[in-house]
Design brief:
single chain; 16% strand; alpha+beta; Dna Ligase, domain 1; 158 residues
């Protein structure tokens, strides 16, 4: 069975072919970084990551490629807190939800099977068939020595 990265490359090849776009190395390097090195990230973090690896790439290419990858279902875009867009890969991932610390910005994924039951029950209540769901819990870290506080990306309401 092909790896999620191999599946993503094949899907991107197909999407590019269908849309008549150019097959650029930058697009595939971005895809590789997302599927092998990054979890939750914004466009600026991705750009910095690529340039630190020695790649010469413009911010516009990063933003445009992220749009392309979202469009073809290879990357999921989330808006957490103050309209900050974060991304994560789509293939090879189980359904999961997020809890986000509004103080330090750390995002933790979790999967609770009880949520599946709740989603199904709500669908039944409203005579609908749930297709997917997204849950983000905004919380505040209770650890006095939070290791993520140094990154200090705040999502607190202002």
């Amino acid at each position: 069975m092909p790896s999620p990265l191999e599946q993503a490359i094949a899907a991107l090849d197909n999407h590019i072919l269908q849309r008549g776009l150019r097959r650029t190395e930058e697009r595939y390097e971005i895809l590789r970084a997302i599927y092998t090195e990054l979890t939750h990230f914004d466009a600026e973090t991705l750009h910095r990551h690529l340039t630190e690896k020695g790649m010469r790439i413009s911010r516009a290419t990063v933003y445009n490629t992220l749009e392309l990858l979202v469009e073809c279902g290879l990357v999921k875009r989330y808006t957490f807190g103050e309209n900050r867009m974060l991304y994560e890969r789509s293939l090879g991932r189980r359904q999961h939800d997020h809890i986000l610390c509004v103080s330090c910005g750390h995002i933790q994924e979790f999967c609770d099977p009880q949520l599946g039951t709740i989603v199904e029950n709500v669908g039944t209540l409203f005579h609908m068939k749930p297709l997917r769901h997204e849950l983000v819990i905004y919380a505040e870290c209770l650890r006095p020595a939070c290791p993520y506080r140094q990154e200090a990306i705040t999502f607190a309401e202002k």
